[in-house]
């Protein structure tokens, strides 16, 4: 928690930069006016929020409710989704997670009326938190999931489906560097972007 809190301000700067980049470039290639939500990572004190509790308006007039829930039995937190129909009835409710923690940061409805999610996972990947991508069918069935990152913490903050059906996630990656002229190690955060095709194959990953 202490390392995570120290990077709160830097992560806020990275998030603002990401939003500016997307505002400048993505509307040209993105699907027309998709609904998307960004889920908060921490409150103003730097503490991780226990529940996200946000709602995504869906194309069918319903809603997708998003929460983080404790999995129990040492399983950490899972992503919990509840799909509501236009008349307020529950269409389906599912949770997604592994042996560690999974959290959603950004969710978008896809062109096939399914959903694409990015955030982080500690259940898979190369160490610490890794950027998490999860694609779901319109009924909430898992189509694919994948993780990307380095040995320190990585996290997806925003996801976008492109006009050709690929998916791009943008977030941050904590990097360890040696201070020039000394042997001192320091950590900072870079912007991280990764692109997948519609089947979950990684096309590129950049910092």
Description of the molecule:
- This protein has one domain (2-206).
- The two termini are 24 Å apart.
- It has a five-stranded antiparallel sheet, with no helix packed on it. Strands 2-3-4-5 form a four-stranded antiparallel sheet, with no helix packed on it. It has a four-stranded antiparallel sheet with strand order 10-11-12-13, covered by helices on one side.
- The protein has helices at 2-6, 8-29; strands spanning 36-38, 54-57, 63-70, 77-84, 90-96, 102-109, 115-121, 130-136, 142-148, 154-161, 167-178, 185-196, 202-206.
- Mean pLDDT is 77; it is low at 1-8, 24-38 and 40-51.
- Strand 10 and strand 11 (167-178) form a beta hairpin.
- The protein is mainly beta.
- The longest helix has 22 residues, at 8-29.
């Amino acid at each position: 928690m202490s390392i995570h809190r120290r990077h709160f301000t830097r992560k806020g700067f990275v998030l603002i930069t990401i939003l500016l980049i997307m505002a400048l470039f993505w509307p040209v290639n993105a699907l027309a006016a998709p609904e998307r939500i960004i889920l908060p990572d921490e409150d103003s004190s730097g503490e991780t929020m226990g529940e996200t509790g946000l709602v995504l308006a869906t194309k069918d007039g319903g809603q997708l409710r998003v929460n983080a829930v404790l999995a129990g039995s040492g399983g950490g937190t899972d992503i919990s989704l509840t799909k509501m129909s236009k008349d307020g009835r529950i269409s389906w409710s599912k949770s997604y997670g592994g042996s560690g923690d999974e959290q959603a940061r950004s969710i978008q409805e896809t062109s096939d009326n399914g959903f694409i999610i990015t955030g982080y996972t500690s259940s898979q990947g190369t160490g610490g938190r890794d950027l998490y991508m999860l694609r779901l069918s319109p009924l909430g069935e898992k189509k694919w999931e994948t993780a990307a990152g380095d040995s320190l913490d990585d996290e997806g903050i925003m996801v976008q489906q492109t006009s050709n059906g690929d998916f791009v996630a943008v977030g941050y990656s904590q990097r360890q560097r040696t201070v020039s002229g000394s042997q001192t190690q320091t950590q900072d955060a870079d912007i991280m972007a990764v692109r997948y095709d519609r089947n979950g194959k990684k096309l590129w990953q950049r910092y």
